[in-house]
Amino acid sequence: MSTHADPFTRMLDSEQGRLLLSKAVRRKLRRGQMLSMPSQFDNQIFIVRSGRIRVHLMNEQRELTLAFLEPGDVYSTHTPAWVTASESSEVLLISARAFSELLAQMPAATGTVVRSLGMLLGRMIELVETLVFRDAHARLAHFLVSTARSHGQRSANGWTLRLHLSITEIALLLGSTRQTVSATLNHMHREGVIMRHGPRQFFIADLARLEAWNGERRTGCEAPRPKQSTQDVGQPTDDVEMPG
């Protein structure tokens, strides 16, 4: 579970949080099951209790992932986005009206909800900035740098990442393809910027080097492009789980 949701999760364990939970309906979702869609009229607030929920836009030509919601995140079913479980998940549903009435009675909880929504909005804005101003290769570098800082464990030798999104999910989040993400990871591995420590763990020996590579790509200077090859020592596959 990500650390960004901890304040809200702790609030749910308080007396005020238990009051909110008593008004909510628990719903379990299987992987791929839809929670809401743009044409849906009911206006409900949901809180992710376990698993991971994908928020995305979609038309006949393409999809754009806006966010992956994790335990403690708060969102609404009444948005122009599709909301789908990317793995087995559990959410708490409560009508927007009842949610507002409860928050009016719990000033302390209001601040926690606002902070949670603010962080979610910040992640979405950062994603849009990344999609607009960086190419596919620089997006992945930025993603790894950002994830290392927010979720990684730092040591004297570098950063260790335990990752929770598949390569396909990362590609969806970055507006890229699975092949490009895999090839770029392989390129980074060959350059010694990242190392694979098992199927769910990566090690970044030199975060500054990865940042510089990212910066060069964003400003238009040519950094080495990865070869589109499926053979490499790292051999990342869709079974490798990576962070959100």
UniProtKB/TrEMBL annotation:
<dbReference type="InterPro" id="IPR050397">
    <property type="entry name" value="Env_Response_Regulators"/>
</dbReference>
<dbReference type="InterPro" id="IPR012318">
    <property type="entry name" value="HTH_CRP"/>
</dbReference>
<dbReference type="GO" id="GO:0003700">
    <property type="term" value="F:DNA-binding transcription factor activity"/>
</dbReference>
<dbReference type="InterPro" id="IPR018490">
    <property type="entry name" value="cNMP-bd_dom_sf"/>
</dbReference>
<dbReference type="Pfam" id="PF13545">
    <property type="entry name" value="HTH_Crp_2"/>
</dbReference>
<feature type="region of interest" description="Disordered">
    <location>
        <begin position="218"/>
        <end position="244"/>
    </location>
</feature>
<feature type="domain" description="HTH crp-type">
    <location>
        <begin position="134"/>
        <end position="208"/>
    </location>
</feature>
<keyword id="KW-0238">DNA-binding</keyword>
<dbReference type="GO" id="GO:0003677">
    <property type="term" value="F:DNA binding"/>
</dbReference>
<dbReference type="InterPro" id="IPR014710">
    <property type="entry name" value="RmlC-like_jellyroll"/>
</dbReference>
<protein>
    <submittedName>
        <fullName>cAMP-binding domain of CRP or a regulatory subunit of cAMP-dependent protein kinases</fullName>
    </submittedName>
</protein>
<dbReference type="InterPro" id="IPR036388">
    <property type="entry name" value="WH-like_DNA-bd_sf"/>
</dbReference>
<dbReference type="InterPro" id="IPR000595">
    <property type="entry name" value="cNMP-bd_dom"/>
</dbReference>
<keyword id="KW-0805">Transcription regulation</keyword>
<keyword id="KW-0804">Transcription</keyword>
<dbReference type="GO" id="GO:0005829">
    <property type="term" value="C:cytosol"/>
</dbReference>
<dbReference type="Pfam" id="PF00027">
    <property type="entry name" value="cNMP_binding"/>
</dbReference>
<dbReference type="InterPro" id="IPR036390">
    <property type="entry name" value="WH_DNA-bd_sf"/>
</dbReference>
<feature type="domain" description="Cyclic nucleotide-binding">
    <location>
        <begin position="8"/>
        <end position="76"/>
    </location>
</feature>
